[in-house]
Every structure is written in structure tokens, then in C-alpha cells.
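[Discussion] Sanity-checking designs against the backbone

I'm trying to build intuition for which residues belong where. Below is a C-alpha cell string of 233 positions. I'd appreciate it if someone posts a full sequence so I can compare it with mine line by line.
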């Protein structure tokens, strides 16, 4: 386990919507390595806020559900104002993401000339752990997105991302829902952020599987992203 003091300049941003069953454990475990965590309770109707407080991390609340993109934007805006903040990570609340993967991504940001690192499930033979329909949806998203392929990304809708303050200061997500992932790609391209991928392990539990995107939803996300790109120009 890494010494948390070595990660005092890192902030984990965790969007939360009705994750009361798992968020305390997820946040508490991550806090052992990364002491700075902000959870954005995106209008949850369960006990998510209470569980976040019990984990001892920062809490920001949306009075109504605005969507994951809006929650990430709120969390990044909160974190980038904290003294000493240099690196930022988008981290899921449902237990899919691994702290060890975050540590590897942050280490790369410290020593390599990159601005943002995106996790990928399609490296080192890891795709076999991805449920078949999910794998099809993710592959379809890449196939339908020329920008994603041009940037050399194989898993653009992976929610585990680590980036520096240059990215955090310029981040301006306008798409409030799940389509923010396509918008992230558009912003990487627009701002010419230096991007790389990192092989990561996604833990698929019964709990997280029940919340996944279908193939049709994946196609809709890409369509929304392409439409949004045109609107931003």
C-alpha cells in the first residue's frame, strides 16, 4: 500500500447516484492510498450522503439528479480549487475501479510527458473479463467514432481517467449525462492534450453488472457525442 502522504497532490472525483450500498467501502478503501477524495452526491434518494460522510471524505451535493457528466464537472471544479492539487482522477462509485490502477496512472503522469491517461479494458488479454454485450457495445462505440480511433484510444468510455491540472483547468463538460465520455474525447482532440492509455482491471460484480450500458445505449452515446461536437464548433 502506498503512503497516502505521497499522494497529497492527487484528488479522486467520484460521481455518486444511489450508491448507498457500496460507497462507504469504496471511498474508505481508496482513502487508504489517496487521502483527497470528493464524492458528488448527484441527487440521490437513498442514504448515499450519509455513507459518504461516514467514509470521512469530502461531500458535494446536487439537489437534483443532473447526470454523471455534471457530477464529474462539479467534482473537478471543487478539487482544482484545493491548495496543492496537481492530479485528478475520475473514479466510479460502484467498486469497479482498482486503486492499484490509479496508482500506476498517477506514477505515469508524474514521469511521462502526457496530460491525460485513459484506462483500457482491451489490453494484455483483459477483455475476456468484460461481459460479451458490454464488449460489443464498447467496440461499437470505437468503430463509430473516427476521432477516438485517430487518437489511438481503444476504450474511450472507460470511466477511469487520470489527468493533470492543465486538463482540469480547461475541462468544461456540457453534456450532463453518460455522453460526457464522448465529450471527453472531443475535448482531448480540441485542446490537443497529450493522451495515453493504461491497461486496467474492471471488477464486474452482480451489483455493477446490473447498472451497465446496453449495446443500443452505447450507440446512442456515440450519436449524442457526434451531435454535441458539431454544436460546440
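Best answer:
Here's mine. Compare freely.
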Amino acid at each position: 500500500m502506498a503512503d497516502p502522504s505521497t499522494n497529497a497532490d492527487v484528488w479522486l472525483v467520484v460521481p455518486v447516484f444511489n450508491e448507498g450500498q457500496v460507497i462507504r467501502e469504496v471511498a474508505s478503501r481508496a482513502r487508504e492510498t489517496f487521502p483527497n477524495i470528493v464524492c458528488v452526491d448527484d441527487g440521490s434518494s437513498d442514504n448515499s450522503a450519509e455513507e459518504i460522510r461516514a467514509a470521512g471524505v469530502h461531500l458535494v451535493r446536487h439537489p437534483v439528479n443532473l447526470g454523471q457528466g455534471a457530477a464529474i464537472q462539479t467534482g473537478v471544479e471543487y478539487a482544482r480549487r484545493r491548495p496543492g492539487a496537481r492530479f485528478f482522477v475520475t473514479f466510479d462509485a460502484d467498486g469497479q475501479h482498482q486503486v492499484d490502477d490509479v496508482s500506476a496512472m498517477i506514477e505515469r503522469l508524474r514521469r511521462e510527458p502526457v496530460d491525460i491517461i485513459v484506462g483500457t479494458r482491451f489490453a494484455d488479454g483483459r477483455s475476456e473479463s468484460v461481459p460479451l454485450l458490454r464488449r460489443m457495445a464498447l467496440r461499437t462505440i470505437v468503430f463509430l467514432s473516427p476521432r477516438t480511433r485517430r487518437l489511438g484510444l481503444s476504450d474511450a468510455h472507460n470511466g477511469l481517467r487520470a489527468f493533470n491540472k492543465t486538463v482540469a483547468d480547461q475541462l468544461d463538460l456540457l453534456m450532463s449525462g453518460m455522453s460526457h465520455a464522448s465529450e471527453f474525447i472531443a475535448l482531448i482532440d480540441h485542446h490537443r492534450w497529450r493522451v495515453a492509455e493504461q491497461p486496467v482491471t474492471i471488477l464486474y460484480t452482480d451489483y455493477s453488472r446490473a447498472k451497465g450500458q446496453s449495446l443500443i445505449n452505447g450507440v446512442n452515446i456515440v450519436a449524442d457525442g457526434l451531435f454535441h461536437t458539431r454544436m460546440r464548433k
